[in-house]
Structure formats: structure tokens, C-alpha cells
TrEMBL record:
The keyword Oxidoreductase applies. This is Glucose-6-phosphate 1-dehydrogenase. It comes from Aquilutibacter rugosus. Pfam families: G6PD_C, G6PD_N. Its EC number is 1.1.1.49. Keywords: Carbohydrate metabolism, Glucose metabolism, NADP, Oxidoreductase. Residues 186-484 form the Glucose-6-phosphate dehydrogenase C-terminal domain.
Length: 484
């Protein structure tokens, strides 16, 4: 069984993700004394650096991306003392051999590799590790997203990695699973008796899962343009949130039980094809607009060329099983939305019969689980409007509102990678994505992509700073719903 890692290797250690998230997360773990005492950290990448050059790079990343108040020189020094660097070029066998020699020298037990590179390097890197006897028991490999761009390409990557690593030692990253609010979704559902009895088609009218971002595509145009919102966000983050919202109670909070339940949800997704893409999906691309008091350029302008890639997608997902029969799960995500907001909105059905007259009860109950930017849970209820009313009881919508920041005062905003790194270091795969999950979600997304192509459904424009194209409004309105 897994032992705590003695060596943590990051491939892509000088990349953007490493600077912003990965190195700061290692610092976070260090600052809470959660890294195994003797664990070394080895960075690797194409950039030519020596140990001290990389230490300077790490220090700079920490100083840039961690709030000054959270930086403590003792912890920085302790982290840097663990750090090494070895440049490597995957296409060069000698260079990979040199890297593997360093790994062999530094490890004295379990190793974790985090492949934070473009996915085309996953198979070659694991092959080199295999060749140098560095992929056997006691080694674990974390794969950064995206795992492919379709079912076929995902399979190819998974097959390549599987030649050297057993599935239970492959940790596919979906960083949403490392977010505090996402884990809290499980706590809320399975730690409280209150919600579970209502958590089904009998009491729930509709579910909406939104990941809205204000950012555009920044400097990642080339990656993003070959991907689009459906591959970049829906195939992974949105479908993972859907799984956690819709799944049955697992027998235990452990890798096999949790992932077995998630896969049942994914397997129950009703396919969407060319016949129904026009009614079941909406596709958009932002044009210039006003956002946060600034005029921002359109996607084509940002990219520097015309493009048919969507920056917004909304889908009505139907989970065809006993629990969810007939309940729409609306999923949507977009760039350049009016605000950054990740939330799950659960609307319950109205009471079966109103004793107060037909007009009195206009707003059914709702539970809103906000994951970002703040973690907050709101339960919307109807309350009597106080006072003496001749016409009987009138209602006002009120909210029971829980704000995690307020409740847990000393709460530090942790990058999701702190949780994921700690789990990988300790050998716990519960919050990672299993092969069948990736492939089942790709199969469903491939259906939509093929449908778009066949039906020639191109992205409709929406101005930056709006909630997406009008087709998204129609998507929910068709079922008598509105976006929350
Ligand atoms: C990444 C996507 O997986 O998630 C990005 O590639 C997106 O396009 C990001 O911006 C959003 O993550 P978060 O943690 O900021 O919600």
C-alpha cells in the first residue's frame, strides 16, 4: 500500500500553472507542516536552470502569487531547502536518462510525478520513467487536464500511460475536486439528514450549475481556440459537479466507492445528437462589450483571427435514472460573463396544494450552493409578511444564509492544489478522476460536438459582460424555467 512520498517531481515546473498554483500550494503545505519531513521536490522543464536558479524562480513565484501577509521566511527557506531542478527534453533520450538518474538518486521510497505539461507529452514521459524502472509500485503519476480533446485521443493518452502505471496509481487532476466548496457539497449532502429525502425528481424541479468567469482567453488563445468552452470546462469541471450533485450515496468516502457512483451518473446521461442540439444546447462567442466599467475586445480580436470556437456553452443534461427522471440539469459556463460566479442552484417543486389561494405561493424553495468567489449556502424559503392583512397570509421570500468566511474566521483561501497534492503525496485517489469517468464524459461530449458539426450550429454572438447568447435563455424558457 502507498507510503508518503519521499520525492515529488513536477514536469512543467517553470510553466504558468506551476508559478501561479503548484509552487504556492507546496508552500501552503510546508507552512502547515504537512509535507513529509524528508520529502524532496524536483522541478523539471525545458528551461535550462540549476538548483539555485530554480530556487530563485520558486521564491519569485511565491512572492508574486502569495499575499505578503501569508509569506513567512522560515517556511520559504524550509521549502527551498527541499527543492532541486533538472532540465529535460522529452524528445531526447539522453536528457531523459539524466533526469531519471537524478530521480533515482533523490528517491528513497514512494515518488509522485505531476505531469503539468501538454498532454501529448504524457505517454513519452511515462515511457521514459518506465524504461528507467521508475514507474513500478510506490510510484504515482498525476496527469494535468486536459486528457485529450475527444474520446479517441483520451483513450490514446490513457493507453500510453497505462503501459507503465497501474490505474490505481494514476491520479487525473480535475482541480475543481480540490476546492473546499466542492468537497463541502459532499459534506452537505451526506453529512446532513435534511436534504437527502428531498434530493430526487419528486421534490426537485430543476438544477442549474453555473461556472461564470469574467476573464477572456488571456494569453492562452492557441490552446483555448482548439478547445472551446465545452472541452475546456464542461467535459471536466461541470460534469464533475453534476456527478457530485446527482450521485447516490457512496458506501464510504474512498476512491472506489465514490468513483463507482460518479460513473453511474455519467453513464445515465441522455445522449444529445444533431437532432436536438438546437433545443438542448446553446453555443456562444463573446464580442466586444462593457465589463467591470471597461470596454473589452471581442474574442476574435483577442485571438487576432476569425474563429468558430465557443466561449460559452449551455446544455440541458438529463440524467436518465430512477432518481432524476425528468429533472433538467442545466449546465453553463462562459468567459467574459458579468461576474465570476460558480454556483449550484437547486429549485424544489412548489407545495402540492396551496391553502392560501393560488396566487399566494409564487416562489418555490431553492437551495443555492455558491462555490466561488465566496463559499456560501443559501436556502430560500417563504415567510409570512408581518402585519395584519385582511386578505390572509402574504409571503415574502427570505433566505437562510451561511457564509463560510464569516463562520470560520481564520479561513485561508487555499489553492485547490493543496488538497490534491497532499492526497497524492499520501496516496489517496478519492478526489481524482478515474479512467472510465474521463472516457464516459468524453463520449457524451463527443456526441454534442458531432451534433454541432452536423447541424452546423455555430456560436451565436453575445456581448462581453452579458450572460450569454439569447439561445441560452430559450434553452431554459422552453421548459418554463429561468436562469437563476
Ligand atoms: C481551467 C480552464 O481548467 O479552469 C480555464 O482551463 C479556467 O479556462 C479555469 O479559467 C477556471 O478555474 P478556477 O479555479 O479559476 O475556477
Amino acid at each position: 500500500s502507498a507510503q508518503p512520498a519521499t520525492l515529488f517531481v513536477i514536469f512543467g515546473a517553470t510553466g504558468d500553472l506551476a508559478q501561479r498554483m503548484l509552487l504556492p500550494s507546496l508552500y501552503g503545505l510546508q507552512s502547515e507542516n504537512l509535507l513529509p519531513d524528508a520529502m524532496r521536490i524536483l522541478g523539471s522543464g525545458r528551461t535550462e536552470l540549476d538548483d539555485s536558479g530554480f530556487r530563485a524562480f520558486v521564491r519569485e513565484a511565491l512572492e508574486t502569487f502569495i499575499p505578503a501577509a501569508e509569506l513567512n521566511e522560515t517556511h520559504v527557506t524550509a521549502l527551498l531547502a527541499r527543492v532541486h531542478y533538472q532540465p529535460a527534453d522529452v524528445s531526447n533520450a539522453d536528457s531523459m536518462a539524466a533526469l531519471c538518474q537524478v530521480i533515482t538518486d533523490l528517491r528513497h521510497g514512494d515518488v509522485v510525478y505531476h505531469l503539468s505539461t501538454a498532454p501529448r507529452f504524457f505517454a513519452p514521459i511515462t515511457a521514459a520513467l518506465g524504461t528507467h524502472n521508475l514507474s513500478g509500485p510506490g510510484t504515482r503519476v498525476m496527469l494535468e487536464k486536459p486528457i485529450g480533446t475527444s474520446l479517441d485521443t483520451a483513450r490514446e493518452i490513457n493507453d500510453g500511460v497505462a503501459q507503465h502505471f497501474a490505474e490505481d496509481r494514476i491520479y487525473r487532476v480535475d482541480h475543481y475536486l480540490g476546492k473546499e466548496g466542492v468537497q463541502n457539497l459532499l459534506a452537505l449532502r451526506f453529512g446532513n439528514a435534511l436534504f437527502e429525502p428531498l434530493w430526487n425528481a419528486r421534490y426537485i424541479e430543476q438544477v442549474q450549475i453555473t461556472i461564470a468567469e469574467t476573464v477572456g482567453v488571456e494569453g492562452r488563445g492557441d490552446y483555448y481556440d482548439s478547445s472551446g468552452a465545452i472541452r475546456d470546462m464542461l467535459q471536466n469541471h461541470l460534469l464533475q459537479l453534476l456527478c457530485l450533485t446527482a450521485m447516490e450515496a457512496p458506501s464510504a468516502f474512498e476512491p472506489t466507492a465514490v468513483r463507482n457512483e460518479k460513473i453511474k451518473v455519467l453513464s445515465s446521461l441522455r445522449p444529445i445528437t444533431a437532432h436536438d442540439v438546437n433545443v438542448e444546447t446553446a453555443r456562444g462567442q463573446y464580442t466586444a462589450g462593457e465589463l467591470e466599467d471597461q470596454t473589452v475586445p471581442g474574442y476574435d480580436e483577442e485571438l487576432g483571427r476569425d474563429s468558430d470556437t465557443e466561449t460559452f456553452v449551455a446544455v440541458r443534461a438529463m440524467v436518465d435514472n430512477w432518481r432524476w427522471r425528468g429533472v433538467p440539469f442545466y449546465l453553463r459556463t462562459g468567459k467574459r460573463m458579468p461576474e465570476r460566479e460558480t454556483k449550484i442552484f437547486i429549485q424544489f417543486k412548489a407545495v402540492p396544494h396551496s391553502i392560501f389561494g393560488s396566487k399566494a405561493i409564487s416562489e418555490p424553495n431553492a437551495l443555492i450552493i455558491r462555490l466561488q468567489p465566496e463559499e456560501r449556502i443559501e436556502l430560500e424559503l417563504l415567510n409570512k409578511t408581518p402585519g395584519l392583512d385582511r386578505h390572509g397570509i402574504r409571503f415574502a421570500k427570505v433566505s437562510l444564509d451561511f457564509d463560510a468566511q464569516e463562520e470560520f474566521k481564520a479561513l485561508r483561501r487555499r489553492p485547490a492544489y493543496e488538497r490534491l497534492y497532499l492526497d497524492a503525496i499520501e496516496g489517496n485517489g478519492t478526489l481524482f478522476v478515474r479512467r472510465d469517468e474521463t472516457e464516459t464524459s468524453w463520449a457524451w461530449v463527443d456526441g454534442i460536438l458531432a451534433g454541432w458539426e452536423q447541424a452546423e450550429l455555430h456560436p451565436s454572438p453575445y456581448p462581453a459582460g452579458s450572460w450569454g447568447p439569447t439561445s441560452a435563455t430559450h434553452l431554459v424558457a422552453r421548459n418554463g424555467h429561468e436562469w437563476n
